[in-house]
Amino acid sequence: MATIKEVAKYAGVSVATVSRALNKNGYVSEEAQKKVENAIKALEYYPNEVARSLYQKKSKMIGLLLPDISNPYFPLLMKGIEENARENGYSVIFGNVEEGSELGQDYMTLFGQQNVAGVLSAVEGTWSQKHAMPIVMLDRVLEEDDYAVYTNDIKGGILAAQAIMDREPGKVLIIAGPKSVPGSIDRLIGMLSVLNPTDVEYEIYQTQSFTIDEAEEAAQNIFRKYKKVDSVLASNDLFALAIMKEAQKRGLRIPQDIQVIGYDDIPFSRLVYPGLTTISQPAFKLGYEASDLLIRLIGKNKIDKKRIKLDPDLIIRGSLRDK
């Protein structure tokens, strides 16, 4: 990898001239600028962004914390973040915290050492009050978080439960997401607001995470524990897909014998047969809006809304019965 000294030697200018040309700080003649640019291209020189940000006292890097990159929902979120960051000249440093781990604080320390300009986090309780750097929470948001972009999960829960109620619900099983995730609680609140005023019988199966491993284990446990289930309201698509897989292994027909609705609208929900009916979170838009909010916060630009709530949509596919 080329150094700034090698670029200066190739271009026939001083190191100071190369530095001014790179940082656009101070006078550089048009001829010298061209020589530096040609040398950078020829030597494939890439500036050290950390060193440059420390020198300029201004960083073009954003830290991103996600709880589980193996969950297909979060790459969609990340795609929106990266697109907005790239449009604004920022790079993204990613940290996978893993459900239930203590890695979040370690990554926050690392981000501080890397001189990031701000942090986007989908890890609940990311200490937004404890750090000087700007932080925007996304997806998993607490009331005390100052800046946040998230989905209206109460509305999503209502949409899911109403879709089941409109289609011969029978006995309903709610697979509730982890209590540590604020959105899980909101989804459950929305679902119960629809079910409780009716005489529909329902049970709640509590989960501890949104991981694939727990989804598969939970599906097996559910069919052992509950002898009769007609409708399943799942807290995310992974659990819904695991239920569909286990039901079909046991010879049950979807949706005739058991109907299922998920939450998130991950790409795999379109690829299974029958297709999974689900509540679509605007993951790409959520990530894009969160990055935009953080960059405006970093730049100390005017911010009209500190907390942005996006609406989910019901996506009907083949896993629900006809009305």
Automatic annotation (TrEMBL):
The entry's keywords: DNA-binding, Repressor, Transcription, Transcription regulation
SUPFAM superfamilies from the UniProt entry: lambda repressor-like DNA-binding domains, Periplasmic binding protein-like I
InterPro entries linked: HTH_LacI, Lambda_DNA-bd_dom_sf, Peripla_BP/Lac1_sug-bd_dom, Peripla_BP_I
Every HTH lacI-type domain range: 2-56
GO molecular function: DNA-binding transcription factor activity; transcription cis-regulatory region binding
UniProt keyword Cell division, yes or no: no
Keyword Nucleotide-binding recorded: no
Top-rank taxon, per record: Bacteria
SMART domains in UniProt: HTH_LACI
UniProt-recorded name of the protein: Transcriptional regulator, LacI family
